[in-house]
Structure formats: structure tokens, C-alpha cells
């Protein structure tokens, strides 16, 4: 799944967040868009799991700050 997380303050430490998210999905990718206001996360998670992981990593967000994007998966790589 791909998510956009609306940021509302200091820029989070992507290394710390990535370490926690990759415990749940080792192939997860994350970055911050050019505006600095949106963190993009691609991971095999549900939105509520992502919210919990971000909180555990020290960057709490609400479910309302997390937008799940429609899937663009063609199914070619795993089924």
C-alpha cells in the first residue's frame, strides 16, 4: 500500500521511522515530498498499523493525517 502522511511540525527522522516500519515490512520505502509537508510510505501495512508504528517510533499521527492511495499494483510480481 502507498500512504501519504500529512506532517504538522518538525520534520521526522526518516532513519528512525524507517527502522520501525521495516520491522513490520522489510521492503518498506519512505521519503518526504519536495514540499516537506507530506511523508510518503510504501509498505505492506494497513493504515491503522502505520499509525501505530509511527507512534511507537516517536512520531505520533492521527488516522486522519494518513491517506491511503489507490493501489497501482498489476499483480505481476506476486500473483
Low-confidence stretches: none
Q: Decide which structural class fits the backbone.
A: alpha+beta
**How many extended strands?**
4
Distance between the termini: 15 Å
**Count of distinct structural domains:** 1
Major sheet description: 4 strands, antiparallel
- Bin the helical content: 25-40%
CATH class: Alpha Beta
Oligomer: single chain
- Looking at the structure, what is the overall shape? globular
Task: Describe the secondary-structure layout.
Elements: E1 2-6, H1 14-24, E2 29-32, E3 38-42, H2 47-56, E4 66-68
Antiparallel strand pairs: 1-3, 1-4, 2-3
Describe the structure concisely:
The protein is of the alpha+beta class and 79 residues long. It has helices spanning 14-24, 47-56, and strands at 2-6, 29-32, 38-42, 66-68.
Descriptive account of the structure:
The chain is α+β, with helices and mostly antiparallel strands and 79 residues long. It has a single domain (2-68), classed as Alpha-Beta Plaits (2-Layer Sandwich). The protein is built from two helices and four strands, in the order βαββαβ. The chain has helices at residues 14-24, 47-56, and strands at residues 2-6, 29-32, 38-42, 66-68. A hairpin with a 5-residue loop joins strand 2 (29-32) and strand 3. The protein is globular.
Amino acid at each position: 500500500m502507498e500512504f501519504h502522511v500529512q506532517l504538522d511540525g518538525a520534520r521526522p527522522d526518516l532513519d528512525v521511522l524507517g527502522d520501525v516500519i521495516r520491522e513490520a515490512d522489510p521492503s518498506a520505502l519512505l521519503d518526504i515530498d519536495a514540499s516537506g509537508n507530506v511523508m510518503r510510505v510504501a509498505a505492506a501495512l494497513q493504515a491503522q498499523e502505520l499509525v501505530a508504528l509511527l507512534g511507537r517510533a516517536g512520531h505520533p499521527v492521527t488516522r486522519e493525517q494518513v491517506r491511503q492511495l489507490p493501489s497501482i499494483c498489476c499483480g505481476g510480481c506476486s500473483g
